[in-house]
């Protein structure tokens, strides 16, 4: 009997010991914390937390953060030993894109990250200030410089040159174009670079002659001799003129015998064969001439510009004949008028 009592006492003591050990184990487990690293906007703190979840820890530590803040782990995540919780609150920035200002915020701190966060893309030559890799402070204005290029096509005329050659087949003072000149065309491609719409530079990318100019060839008369009844006669100029004829009749002069100026030229000389009426602005009065026919009929011959008429203007000439029959026979025709030296 004594042995049974001793055995029961030993078993009871063992059970009590086991209960105490279990209780102590649970207590140690319940009060053992986890090492936590908390990074809030770059400020790092390390401590032991007894919270069960991230959200419970944030509430316990009274961490202030924005609704748009970045948290690297879900709020309902269990707190484990050596866990790192990172919280980044949005930082205010201004983005200036070609004069359009955007007041915004981002959790990132470099220019490139901020722009990427707002889905703002840059062209190949676009750049920013501050630079893309630069870390910026809150309130910084990020200025975007948009670089654009365009090519302007400018066409200019290349004037043709004139080549003058002397010809003994043409009279002095007479010119003849034997080859018409034509302007050429030059095309220039100018590359213009703009920054935010303002012209920064322009350079000639390349240029090409689209059409070469064609030279104009002009013959200039050098012949100053005309064969007349007196042999070779030197002249200094020739003019093709429209010729008419007149006599002393009333129909030609508007005067009758007995009138004061009947038969008298504008030069005050007596009208006679070889006297011609001209426009003094073209041929001065007193100029010696030779009138050559252009239709195969006999030349009028040597003449002197001594008269003028109301209808004789410009390249017109009026030849005096002694009879009305000769006037009618001559009519009106073109002649070559040589101004003699």
Write the layout of secondary structure elements.
Layout: H1 2-30, E1 34-40, E2 43-49, H2 54-60, E3 70-71, E4 83-88, E5 91-97, E6 100-106, H3 111-117, E7 127-129, E8 141-145, E9 147-158, E10 162-171, E11 175-179, E12 184-195, E13 198-211, E14 216-223, E15 225-228, E16 231-246, H4 250-253, E17 275-277, E18 288-293, E19 301-307, E20 316-320, H5 324-330, E21 333-340
Oligomer: single chain
Helix content range: 10-25%
The whole-number mean of residue pLDDT values reads: 90
CATH class division of the largest domain: Mainly Beta
Q: From the 3D structure, determine the CATH topology of the largest domain.
A: Barwin-like endoglucanases
The topology string of helices and strands comes to HEEHEEEEHEEEEEEEEEEHEEEEHE
């Amino acid at each position: 009997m004594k042995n049974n009592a001793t055995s029961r006492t030993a078993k009871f003591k063992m059970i009590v010991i086991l209960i105490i050990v279990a209780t102590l184990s649970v207590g140690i487990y319940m009060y053992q914390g986890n090492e936590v690293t908390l990074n809030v906007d770059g400020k790092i703190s390390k401590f032991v937390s007894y919270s069960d979840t991230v959200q419970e820890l944030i509430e316990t530590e009274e961490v202030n953060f924005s609704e748009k803040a970045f948290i690297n782990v879900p709020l309902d995540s269990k707190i484990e030993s050596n866990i790192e919780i990172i919280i980044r609150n949005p930082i205010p920035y201004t983005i200036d894109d070609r004069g359009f200002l955007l007041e915004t915020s981002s959790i990132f701190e470099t220019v490139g990250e901020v722009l990427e966060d707002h889905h703002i893309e840059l062209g190949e030559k676009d750049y920013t200030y501050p630079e893309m890799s630069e870390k910026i402070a809150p309130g910084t204005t990020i200025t975007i410089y948009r670089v654009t290029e365009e090519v302007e096509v400018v066409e200019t005329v290349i004037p043709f040159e004139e080549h003058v050659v002397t010809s003994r087949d043409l009279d002095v003072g007479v010119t003849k174009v034997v080859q018409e000149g034509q302007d050429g065309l030059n095309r220039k491609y100018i590359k213009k670079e703009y920054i935010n719409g303002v012209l920064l530079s322009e350079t000639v990318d390349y240029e090409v002659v689209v059409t070469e100019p064609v030279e104009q060839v002009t013959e200039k008369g050098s012949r100053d001799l005309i064969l007349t009844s007196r042999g070779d006669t030197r002249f200094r100029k020739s003019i093709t003129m429209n010729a008419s004829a007149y006599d002393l009749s009333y129909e030609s002069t508007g005067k009758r015998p007995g009138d004061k100026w009947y038969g008298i030229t504008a030069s005050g000389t007596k009208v006679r064969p070889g006297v011609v009426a001209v426009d003094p602005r073209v041929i001065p009065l007193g100029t010696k001439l030779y009138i050559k026919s252009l239709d195969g009929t006999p030349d009028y011959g040597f003449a002197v510009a001594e008269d003028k008429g109301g209808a004789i203007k410009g390249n017109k000439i009026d030849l005096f004949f002694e009879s009305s029959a000769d006037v009618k026979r001559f009519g009106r025709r073109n002649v070559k008028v040589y101004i003699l030296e």
